Amino acid sequence: MTDSRSIQTVLVANRGEIAMRVIRTCQELGLRTVAVYSTPDRLAPHVRLADEAYAIGPAAASESYLDMEVLLDVAARSGADAVHPGYGFLSENADFADACADADLAFIGPPPRAIRAMGDKTAARTLMQEAGVPMAPGTPNAVEHVETAAQKAEEIGYPVLIKAAAGGGGKGMRIVRDPENFARAMEMAQSEAKNAFGDGRVFVEKYIDQPRHIEFQILADAHGNTVHLFERECSIQRRHQKVIEEAPSSILTPEKREEMGQAAVAAAEACGYVNAGTVEFLVDADLNFYFMEMNTRLQVEHPVTEAITGIDLVAEQIRVANGEPLGYTQDDLTIDGHSVECRVYAENPAENFLPDPGPLLRHAAPSGVGVRVDAGVEEGGEVLIHYDPMISKLITWGSDRDHAIRRMQRALSEYEIAGMHTTIPFCQFAMQHDAFCSGQFSTHFVDEHFDPAALHPSDATFDLYAALAAVAEAHTRSQKTDAKPMATPSSNGRPWRRRRRHVQ
Ligand code: MV4
To answer: Which of 443, 444, 446, 447 to mutate to test the pocket of ligand 1 (most atoms within 8 A of CB)?
Structure first.
């Protein structure tokens, strides 16, 4: 691709922290950035960070961030020559990738046919089986008749898992431990899948007990080069959503890492993958690994990979979309230290992680050596009910796992948030738990180990007093330049106490 054809202006078709993440790298590469915003996002930080911003519609995502026509119109009006979709919204929509190509825009993501191949779960399973990627024993395709499926379950051996072909988020999933429960479980899975996805097809797999979720980051250029950037361990989840991730996984040996990395590269090559992607595996206690799915986008947890490899994944995505070859081979890549990410959501961990959106009265993020914070909301802003309630991602790096965890404990204790409950106390709980610290955990960590009673009940109160005191003092100072500092920063006469630290 000649220089005159190369990307110069990027439309960032997203909001929040990921829009800011993409804009920042564009700026470093000397590219012009165009943001888009829904009505309630008009003052959002991603809007101010971009060179230009365009209104795209009301709060409802279906009428703004998901409206392809409006986005393509903004691309035309702004003179953008590329689109970065971020994650969520249109990031894994092959029709949108096609529409971008038709409008002569570079889609900073994989080719539409790779998105389609991996979007259909049963088609992806067949493709992966052909490519020799290990899969849990099971029916590669959907099974229609209960008798046939029950027969397959016998062959696979109990316990089995019935999964929705249209899949995702654990919906339509049923564990079956005994043959006598199979028929009923299958009917329930089918009706749940029909309700959730409008597609009642299911398939049957060997159930992996106590698995870990380990995913490999891959990167492929348009010249036939594919590498992996090692793995991320994402087993700490609630309601099938990740809360804590780390890189590398503490259970993989160098040999297993190489074997899984090669399988991930084979998976990417089998679907003609170009750009950044992630191959997810389930890993059992004996380190057997099984393909789960491939995510054809940049992921929320990509910063832990950036921390241990030193590679800016968004910059790589843009270079690859520009037709440039990867500047390194697998042998050039090494793991440096360890990284942990805690997702800070506006949710109450004591109330089964119930979302708690609203105004963010106080937001003072930690900083210092080895700490990265990617936030999408700022103090004085609001966590909107219309979108994902994530406030920020807190990422630490350390020379080894223990170092990264201690930094995370320090950073969490430094974080001041008021106006809402957050997942910070849960993350503090995990960072001091024996199961997490020793690396002996599975995707069942929350169910098996989390005790909401172990959270410090006073945290939210302390944070609120601290916040109100800080806001009041800032206000006083803005009114009177000769204002005396308060005797204590607490407005209620109680001495200041920082967020309690959970350290062994
Ligand atoms: C499994 C499994 C055990 N055995 N498949 C959950 C969501 C879906 N995408 C795949 N999931 C699982 N598939 C077999 N054969 C256990 C899970 C699972 C899980 C996987 C990853 C992260 C968190 C999880 C929580 C519960 C169950």
So the answer is: 443
Per-residue pLDDT tens digits for 119-149 = 988 889 999 999 999 999 998 788 999 999 9
Which position has the token pair 């090559």? 269
Rounded Cα distance between 485 and 474, Å, is: 10
Closest ligand 1 atom to the C-alpha of 234?
22
* 96's tokens: 């949108």
What is the per-residue burial (b if ≥16 Cβ within 10 Å, else e) of 323-359?
Answer: beebeeeeeebebebbbbbbbbbbbbbbeebebbbee
Q: What is the DSSP string of 387-449?
A: S--EEEEEEEEESSHHHHHHHHHHHHHH-EEESS--SHHHHHHHHT-HHHHTT---TTHHHHH
Chain mean pLDDT for the chain: 92
Does ligand 1 come within 6 angstroms of the Cβ of 281? no
Residue 287 — pLDDT band, cuts 50, 70, 90?
Answer: very high
Binding site membership of 172 for ligand 1 (Cβ less than 6 Å) = no
Q: Are 59 and 40 a contacting pair, CB within 8 Å?
A: yes
Task: Let me know how long the chain is.
Answer: 504
* Protein residue with its CA nearest to atom 10 in ligand 1: 170
Q: Cβ distance 274 to 261 under 8 Å?
A: no
pLDDT digits (tens, 9 = 90+) for 313-343: 999 999 999 999 999 999 999 999 999 999 9
Residues noted as catalytic: 297
pLDDT of residue 141: 86
Question: Which pTM was predicted?
Answer: 0.93
